Amino acid sequence: MTEYEAVIGLETHIQLNTTTKIFCSCKADSWFDPPNTNVCPVCCGLPGVLPVLNKRVVEKAVLLANAMHSEIRPLSFFDRKNYFYPDLPKGYQISQFDQSLGKGGYLDLPIPAAASPDKMPYTRRVSIWKLHIEEDAGKTKNVGNCRFIDFNRCGVPLVEMVTGPDLRTADEAGQYLIRLRQLLRWLGISEADMEKAHLRCDANVSIRVKGETILNPKTEIKNVNSIDAVRDAIAKEVERQIREVEAGHRIEAWTLEWDEDTGTLKKMRSKETEADYRYFREPDLLPIRLTDEWRDAILRDFPELPLVRRSRFVEQYGLPEYDADILTSERKLSDYYETSVREYGSDPKKVSNWLMNDVLRMINEQSLNPEEMKLTPKALAEIIKLVDAGTINITTGKSLLEKVQATGKAPSQIVIDEGLAKVSDDGAIRVVCEQVLAESPNEVAAYKGGKVGLIGWFVGSVMKKMQGKADASKAKAILEELLK
Amino acid sequence: MELCDLSALEMTKLLREKKTSAVEILQSCLQRIGRVDGRPGALDQVVTDDDKQKVHSFITLTDDLALEQARAVDADLAAGKDPGPLAGVPFTVKDIFCVKNTPSTAASRILANFTAPYTATPVERMQKAGAVMIGKVNLDEFTYGSSTESSAFQPSTRNPWDTSRVPGGSSGGSTASVAAGEAPLSLGTDTAGSIRQPAAFCGVVGVKPTYGRVSRYGLIAFASSLDCPGPVARTVSDAAAMLQVIAGADEHDSTATVLPVADYMSGLEKGVKGMRIGLSPDYFRITFPDLKTGEFHQQPLPKEIEEAVRRAAQVLASLGAEIVEDVPMPNTRFGIPAYFVVSRVEAASNLHRYDGVKYGLRTHKQYTDLKQMYKISRNEGFGLQPKLRILMGMYVSAAQYSEQYYQRALRVRTMIRRDFEEAFDPQGKYRLDALLTPTTPTTAFAMDAVYGDSVLMQYADQLTVPANHAGVPGISLPGGLDGTNLPIGIQLLGADYTEDKLFRIGRAYEQATSDEAWRKVLPGVLR
């Protein structure tokens, strides 16, 4: 049987999270606003208006280009992409064509075992073919015979980024989007929420006999608005193409639409010829001159990127890949982890355990921002140290996490205020142990009758009476002695 | 001589001396309009013989608003407040600029119902300076023409010197309103000569500033890389005072330069001693292609026009300027073909927004789908000129032709720019302060004589368009009258941002010729 491989390229549109639009001072994000409320003569394309570039857009795009290893052009140009559509108020979109901000680039995409066909992790290098700035168009809603147009989205800043045909499986496409989303949030340049269309993706899919290098006619899948949907749609389309080819049919260059509800692909249109957008230089804007000073200022605080940090965590801290992956899922969390390790001073894996088991749950349950938590890395380190020193037991330590987060007090202060320090005094524990045994004649009899497993229950009762402060191992030893 | 015939600077002076009021000045202008202008342009009108005796500068007269503004100026003056450098000076605005709550039609049916929700920067600056807008004046549809005849609002403007002749264009309403004494100042636009050519035809001063010197915000775009708003006035000093007000950086237009605006007024009277003023043989002939063979033919200019320029050169020489002959400007002849391509590509794109969706005309006819709605609306709304320009613009920017036409035209543009750079290079062979040329190859032609021949009409801009390609400033000055008492325009072209020098030369020439007989001749409608 012939073995096929998929050839996949992704076209992404990334909504930058600037406060205002790209060419006017209207608010950029309108997700919660009624239609046509964030509009002005400029973004509605009234006669006589002119665009004025929002510098923050360039800065955010430069961050992305740098992260994608793109060559950043010191001089790039805006061009008009001309076409008619009711939600494109000027009849052209201001975009970048042949001299865009970013040139080339790549992303080394780690494919985890779970997403690998042979369950072995590997790395896929995805090349970047296009990286440019442009304005968004509006939104059209068809209701019966009517078209409703919302211009709120006109002029929202986008980066269009297109990969080469380098992805080979639907899972790889999914991984690309997961890593891209992580990167965009890491850089703080987009909310990257696919459900809110901050990150939009069209997929170009073709197949070929494995081992061949030719590119066969491709189909374009549009309107996919979640990572799962992208994966599903591509998988379905690859299956379909294989079926067609096996049946001796040709693949035609269709545009397909993903139907989220039914999980099926529908043909939108056949693509006969490429549209002619009659690109020419936008005469209303100056070229973007990215001086060395400006570029350096933008990149001065360029962060360590998530995949780099992930590898470093494995090497430097000896963390398992699993820990490193979770701890670098988000930039603030990974910063939190590193600060905690520094504050604690040793055993990064122990810090990771505390973070991944307890702190992360707290963060998720209460939707906390690691950067703004009252449970600072310093407090976390202090709690672990208190446990290490035997001042408190581990249960008290874990309950302290919540208390510090709730009150903002120093852990040691809470220990003093609430008398949480572990009781290691034999005499005090012995008194309580005697009391427990006196109150539980039945259990004592059972124990003496051979049910030695009850020792745990006795220890628990002692701990309960002492509000968990007793040194559990001491209590056990005393109980065993008394029960002899 | 009536109040409305004074210069803008004389008007404000009288006003400040309390010898008149802004309302009086306004009323004098409105009276003049009543006497010579006839009915304003409107859609679907038949031009009568009566109409042919009048000027028809206006599309919309904003006399109520003007009266309000004039009263405010008078109130400010009475209260001892400074109402601004152009306080109480009436001005007209080419109806290609958006003015808040005012119809802004571009002289096109497609925008006939459009009322702008904001005001163009140059208009706003005029109003802030105390000037009083009295109305929006006629033009070629979307500025596409050189005679104002292509306006969808008829009767279109006629030349105040001889109403059987065109006022030129596309700022024909602007130059006619100033020539006829309806207002001392007007705001026009110049994309290939649209201020200077009608200024020459109407015997007034017209300035095309350096590209980027005046904000384009609110100017309904024709060819965005060439469009320049600029002043129309009866004297050089008035034009300088107006440019002083409208020039400068604008947060709404990133192509408006942030370079500081020169003080145009202080150097105005300094004379031309030691200035180097060039004459170029390439501006004393016109070159045009044979439409069948594509070969270029050359033809000398009418004698009267060349003589007017040479006379002006002598006057300037007698004032101490050094005249530099034979300055080569070899790429002048490619100005029109290159312009044909560049301007059409930008125009077609700029017209995409008029689609019947958001504003302007949407057809009342039945349509079955969106595409048909676009087609019928645009077919009904656009006149011949926009349609021709869309066709040509779409053709030469198509992927398969762009390199051959559009990209090539851009390279020609660079060559034209180089001609100017060499002529004005302070270290170069010519070291010119200005180039003195005729403004137009002819004086005002008869109504209907050229209209309909789009190519020939375009050649009216042959001597003005190079400055638009190059971005350099130019000014057209009245330079005499021809044998039929029609004004002849002479043009001064300078290096980037040397408007101050052009004003200075223009002012020196104006003063030196102030007693000449032709200066006393009035436009026909005022005789």
Explain what this protein looks like in three dimensions:
The complex is a heterodimer of chains A (484) and B (527). Chain A is an alpha+beta fold and 484 residues long. In chain A, 39% of the residues lie in helices and 20% in strands. Chain A has 15 helices and 17 strands. Chain A has helices spanning 55-67, 170-187, 227-246, 292-299, 306-317, 321-327, 331-344, 348-365, 377-388, 394-407, 411-417, 426-439, 441-448, 455-465, 472-482, and strands at residues 4-15, 71-72, 75-76, 79-82, 92-95, 102-103, 106-111, 122-135, 139-143, 146-150, 157-163, 199-209, 219-224, 254-259, 264-270, 280-281, 288-289. Chain A has an eight-stranded mixed beta sheet. In chain A, strand 13 (219-224), helix 3 (227-246) and strand 14 form a beta-alpha-beta unit. Chain B is α/β, with parallel strands linked by helices. Among the domains of chain B are: 3-260, Amidase signature (AS) domain (Amidase signature (AS) enzymes, Alpha-Beta Complex); 336-405, no CATH class. Chain B contains 15 helices and 13 strands. Chain B has helices at residues 8-16, 22-36, 63-78, 121-128, 172-179, 196-202, 236-246, 303-318, 335-350, 370-381, 384-397, 403-424, 454-458, 465-470, 499-512; strands spanning 58-61, 90-94, 132-137, 185-190, 205-208, 228-233, 276-278, 285-289, 296-300, 322-324, 434-438, 474-481, 487-493. In chain B, the strands form two sheets. Chain B has an eleven-stranded mixed beta sheet with strand order 1-3-2-4-6-5-12-13-11-7-10, sandwiched between helices. Chain B has a two-stranded antiparallel ribbon with strand order 8-9. In chain B, helix 7 (236-246) runs antiparallel to helix 15 and helix 9 crosses helix 11 (384-397). The interface between A and B is medium-sized, with 28 and 42 residues.
